[in-house]
Amino acid sequence: MPRRTTDRGRATVKDVAARARVSTATVSRVLGGTYPVAAVTRNRVQRALRDLDYVVNANARSLGQATSNTVAFVVNDVTGPSFAHIAQGVEQQASAEGRLCLVCTTHHDPARELAVINLMREQRAEAVILVGGAVPTPEYTERMVRLARSLDADGSRLVLCGRSSLGPDVPETVVEYDNEGGAFSMTSYLLSLGHERIALVGVERHTVAAGRVAGYRRALESRGLSYDPDVVVPGPYTREAGYRATRELLAKGTEFTAVFAMTDMIAAGVYKALREAGLRVPDDVSVVGFDDIPLATDLAPELTTVHVPHEELGRAAVRLALNRADHPVQHLTMGTHVVVRGSAGPVGARNPGATA
CB-side exposure of 189: number of CA atoms within 13 Å? Predict the structure, then answer.
């Protein structure tokens, strides 16, 4: 179907409604996000919004390149401690730059993410900062490239914080950290302690997890060891997921001497499951994490983990996006490093799988 636009070249609510075969009121409800709309209908409207590159305020372009001195921080869930620390960095730098920071959540809903970004385009946000991993399907990547170009045309900027670049020649700011290198270093540390059966807990299907799994695999291969899917347990980045995954490994009698939790929150759940099974950390099972959030030092023993510079990620995301003339290189990768505490030690004498 050919694109329908107004005489100013921008789609209207009527255009979107016609393409989605719904009423203009339904389109408004989807855009507002405060009124329930059937999932099938909402998806159809969101598809029309994407196809027509719709911006809520059809008169926005008449404002030229004026912006609202606002920075938008877009995240799946603000309850995650690592996200909270990145948000703190974003807010601190935005305040230092004389900008207002808005926090928006998507609840892991790609359609809502699109709606939020378009709303920020309407509000003339100077930068839209997306935080956390994403599932890099061709459709998702194509959509994000289109959004990056649309934001750029409107005088705004798409910022990927903790995500990889969308590709060459995309008008974007990328501030990420070395997930693969951190996981490689941590796995290598466990291998140096004699651990060869290292369970990997909390593997999700997104870019952050992919980097960490790649580092884990590379470390094993560097020692001539094979990647064993039997000790790799998928799940979300929550304490409950770590608890369930560890119980599952123990119930199956899976042999392992160490657990590499994909986040510190997951590690907290691993601790609980091991303790209930009568296993000691690190005497019987070593446990390590990733993130180095304050929780890591609240656990007993304190958690060996990979440090991620969360607040600096947030500050850098704002600094680069708002000062592009001073920072011609708009892609920054920050380092990570292993913080050794008390939760990992040499291989013990007991087999946790046999004691479940």
Answer: 23
